[in-house]
Every structure is written in C-alpha cells, then in structure tokens.
C-alpha cells in the first residue's frame, strides 16, 4: 500500500463492480449482472478509480477496455467476487466445484450455431448456474475489444495482439449446387464452365477471410446473390439460385445439395480461438474452452475432407 492510498478508502464491493464491467465490457450489461442500474456501475467505478488514484478503464469503440492498471487490479477484484460466490454456495449447500457467472462468446453464424452451441449445451448441463451468451455474425473480430471472453474467428489473426490465441481446427469449403439447379443448368466440369454460372457468396465488403477470397479461385466469376449470413447462402443454394462456396459441415447436412463436378481447389480455413488474457484464467472460461476443443476433436470428419469428396451428381446437361 502506498502512502497516498489507504485500505479504508477502497470499498471491497466496488471491486465486484470492476470485475463485472471487465467481464462484460459495457455498463448496461454489467448492471444486469449486478442487479443495479448502469449509472450505479459508472458511479462506483469512478469512486474506485478515485480511491486508487488510477484510471482503470478506457472507453473504446466496442466497449470499455481495461487499462494496464485495470488489468493488474482486476484479478484481485475477481478473487473477491469468487469469495462471494463461494460463500453463497456454502450457504445454500451447492457443490464447491459448480461454475457460476457469465461467459460471452463471439463466433461466425454457421460455426457458432452448429459447433459452439452443442459445446455450450454440455457445459450448461453440468453447470446449470452458469450463464452463456453467444454473439454470432459475419463481422470481423476486433482483437482489441473487451466485449467477449472467447472469440472464434476465421483465418489467421494478425501477429500483434494482446489476446491469447490458438488454432482449434480447420474446416474445408467446396462449391455446391442443388439437384434442381444442376439438372436445369448443367454441372460445370471446369473452372471456365463454373465462371459462366451465377454464384452465391458473401457481401464483398464484409468478407475479410483471405482463405476464401473468391477472386483467388474464380477471377472471372460473377456473384448474383450475396449475403452476410451463411444460412441465407445455404438456403439460396437449396432453392436453385446458383452455385455457392459453402463449408463442408453445412453442405453435407443439407438435403439435395451436391458438390459440383469441376475440380476447383477446396479452401481450408483455420479456426482461431481468442481469449482476453484476464478472462483466460477464469474457471468458467476454461470449461467452455475445453468443451469447444472436445467438440471439434470428435467431429473432425464433418470439418475437413480426409480424401476426395464424394463424386458430383451426374446430370443430363
């Protein structure tokens, strides 16, 4: 303790507010967790900063981000929150190893729905006191944001980041079309043939995963239907709008969807799991991480082709 800071000036309960805001990144969300209004969160944080004589958060575009001092203090704040949780569990006779709190995950629509959700379901079944939040979308993961505990992003992350990152799996893409489309328009047998067909793909401005850059494979292709949502692309493919570049794990479960005949290179995309350093040591975050690793390990055959994909459907073009 320094000469200018006294323990009597630091309220232990304010440290719980610090931990909640660090976990959520937003006063409104932290307020819901704590059962107060958001002005109380801001007021208590200002009081704690005043008592410690240091700024603990900066307001970023994506939410409130811990300063260096905030990161040094927050783990001690979480110890206080953990002590409160343990006291509550002891009072109600709950198991000591039960997990509580909230874990927020961000992921792309398809992978988040079909792989992250089953993993979260297993964790919740084992720890019913745990809250999980899954935010899905096509937007690029902002690797400096503080609004998630675990972020699942596609493609290699930039080398300079303050997050803890690891590759958890790969998954393959391929060009697919519906039976109806192939029967009516023919099955392209070459890249040149494929470039004559209308394609289904992401909205160009939203696509930042270089491994699935369409120009790399089909420089002369014309996208006639685009969407930021991979499920919308899959539905457009099912309805015969055109030919789509789809993840294997989605295409193989869609009835009436087949790989095309053309021997086009199949993109393989790395899946990166990122966590904030201050979140990666929390028991509940580690439990979700382990569940995700188990999910992708047990379902490798859905993610990648270990040999050539099934032969394309033969049509009378």
What do you see in this structure?
The chain is α/β, with parallel strands linked by helices. It has three domains: 7-92, Arc Repressor Mutant, subunit A (Orthogonal Bundle), CATH 1.10.10; 101-167 and 271-301, Periplasmic binding protein-like II (D-Maltodextrin-Binding Protein, domain 2); 169-269, D-Maltodextrin-Binding Protein, domain 2. Helix content is 40%, strand content 21%. The chain has twelve helices and eleven strands. It has helices spanning 12-24, 27-34, 38-52, 68-92, 109-126, 179-185, 191-194, 214-217, 230-238, 248-251, 283-298, 300-303, and strands spanning 57-60, 63-66, 101-107, 130-136, 150-154, 164-178, 198-201, 222-226, 243-247, 257-259, 268-275. Strands 3, 4, 5, 6, 7, 8, 9, 10 and 11 form a nine-stranded mixed beta sheet that branches. A two-stranded antiparallel ribbon has the order 1-2. Helix 8 (214-217) links the parallel strand 7 and strand 8. It is elongated. The chain starts with 11 loop residues before the first helix and ends in a 14-residue tail after the last helix. The model is unreliable at 312-317 (pLDDT under 50).
């Amino acid at each position: 303790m320094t000469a200018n800071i006294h323990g009597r000036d630091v309220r232990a309960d304010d440290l719980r507010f610090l931990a909640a805001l660090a976990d959520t990144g937003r006063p409104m969300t932290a307020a819901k967790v704590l059962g107060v209004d958001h002005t109380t969160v801001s007021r208590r944080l200002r009081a704690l900063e005043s008592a410690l004589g240091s700024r603990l958060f900066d307001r970023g575009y994506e939410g409130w981000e811990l300063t260096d001092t905030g990161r040094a203090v927050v783990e001690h704040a979480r110890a206080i929150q953990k002590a409160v949780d343990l006291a509550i569990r002891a009072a109600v006779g709950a198991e000591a190893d039960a997990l509580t709190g909230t874990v927020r995950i961000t992921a792309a629509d398809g992978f988040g729905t079909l792989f992250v959700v089953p993993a979260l379901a297993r964790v919740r079944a084992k720890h019913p006191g745990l809250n999980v939040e899954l935010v899905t979308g096509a937007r690029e993961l902002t690797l400096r944001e503080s609004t998630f505990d675990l972020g699942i992003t596609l493609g290699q992350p930039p080398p300079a980041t303050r997050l803890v990152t690891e590759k958890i799996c790969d998954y393959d893409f391929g060009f697919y079309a519906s039976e109806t489309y192939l029967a009516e328009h023919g099955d392209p047998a070459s890249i040149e043939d494929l470039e004559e067909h209308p394609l289904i793909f992401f909205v160009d401005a939203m696509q930042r995963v270089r491994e699935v850059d369409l120009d790399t494979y089909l420089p002369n292709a014309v996208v006639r239907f685009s969407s930021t949502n991979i499920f919308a692309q899959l539905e457009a493919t099912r309805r015969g709008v055109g030919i789509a570049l789809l993840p294997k794990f989605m295409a193989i479960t869609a009835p009436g969807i087949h790989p095309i005949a053309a021997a086009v290179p199949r993109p393989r995309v790395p899946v990166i799991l990122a966590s904030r350093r201050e979140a990666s040591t929390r028991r509940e975050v580690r439990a979700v991480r382990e569940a995700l690793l188990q999910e992708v390990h047990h379902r490798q055959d859905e993610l990648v082709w270990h040999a050539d994909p099934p032969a394309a459907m033969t049509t009378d073009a």
